[in-house]
Amino acid sequence: STPQTLAGKKVLLTAGATFEAIDPVRGITNISSGQMGLALARACRAAGAEVTLIYGQVQAPIPAGLAQAVQAVSAEAMYAAVHRHIGRQDIFIAVAAVADYKVKNSHAQKLKKDLSGSPPLIELAENPDILASVAALPQPPFCVGFAAESERVLEYARIKRAKKNIPMLVANQVAQAMGKDSNQVTILDQHGETALPHMSKADTATAIVAHLAGLLV
Ligand code: C5P
């Protein structure tokens, strides 16, 4: 059985892909499957934590034994759900692949193909950064972020950790991570950089939780 390294800790997690509506049937999303976030929720639970999960679109089952699991599909809905639950959390782990932009001119009714032949224009507006907003709270929980990059993974991850002002960041390569059931991650924290082996997301999650617990003592 897993050592109870997070016993008595309250953990809030985000997982999965967000979905930004264009109209009632169409939207903008990404290839996140939610597996890494769900595996982390399970690993935190196994380590004795009280886990609240906020999830967008996921392609795997929600783990059993969570304190709460709330679906919030757009970035704004996810932001609101996180801030409703963030009080009294000890740890916040942002795994969700959140859209940087929403559709500014989303339509209440289904768009019809224009008979004049001109394609509709989709205008974008910036979404709030959930992780940065939690890290900026007066008394933030211990924040863990993820960075999925397609190139210059560690370089961008270092910048992201500094910019969002978070103690621990997990970096991975998009092609190895998103939509896959295994992963290879590097953990960045105040002590340096720790590369984990390529392994299942379940094992990666267990190792991330062990690393996190080590930073809390
Ligand atoms: O900036 P980028 O999206 O690459 O940062 C990734 C990290 O920030 C992830 O931990 C992700 O969950 C979080 N994030 C967020 N809200 C956003 C964008 C990213 O919480 N709007």
The helical percent reads 25-40%
Strand content: 25-35%
Mean pLDDT: 96
Q: Catalogue the unreliable spans.
A: none
Count every helix, treating DSSP H or I runs of 4 or more residues as helices.
6
As laid out across the biggest beta sheet, the strand order is 5-4-1-6-9-10-12-13
GO cellular component, one term: phosphopantothenoylcysteine decarboxylase complex
Family: In the C-terminal section; belongs to the PPC synthetase family.
Domain DNA/pantothenate metabolism flavoprotein C-terminal: 6-213
Organism: Paralysiella testudinis
Provide tags for this entry.
single chain; about 220 residues; alpha/beta; eight-stranded mixed beta sheet; two-stranded antiparallel ribbon; 6 helices; globular; binds cytidine-5'-monophosphate
Describe this entry's structure for a reader.
It is a single chain. The protein has about 220 residues and is an alpha/beta fold. The chain has helices at about 35-45, 75-85, 130-135, 155-165, 175, 200-215; strands at about 10-15, 20-25, 25-30, 50-55, 70, 90-95, 100-105, 125, 140-150, 170-175, 180-185, 185-190, 190-195, 200. The chain has an eight-stranded mixed β-sheet with strand order 5-4-1-6-9-10-12-13, with helices on both faces. β2 and β3 (about 25-30) form a beta hairpin. The longest helix is centred in the C-terminal third of the chain and has 16 residues, at about 200-215. It binds cytidine-5'-monophosphate. Cytidine-5'-monophosphate (C5P) binds near residues 95, 129, 131, 147 and 160. It comes from Paralysiella testudinis. GO terms for molecular function: FMN binding; metal ion binding; phosphopantothenate--cysteine ligase activity; phosphopantothenoylcysteine decarboxylase activity. Its EC number is 4.1.1.36, 6.3.2.5. Its cofactor is Mg(2+); FMN. Keywords: Decarboxylase, Flavoprotein, FMN, Ligase, Lyase, Magnesium, Metal-binding, Multifunctional enzyme.
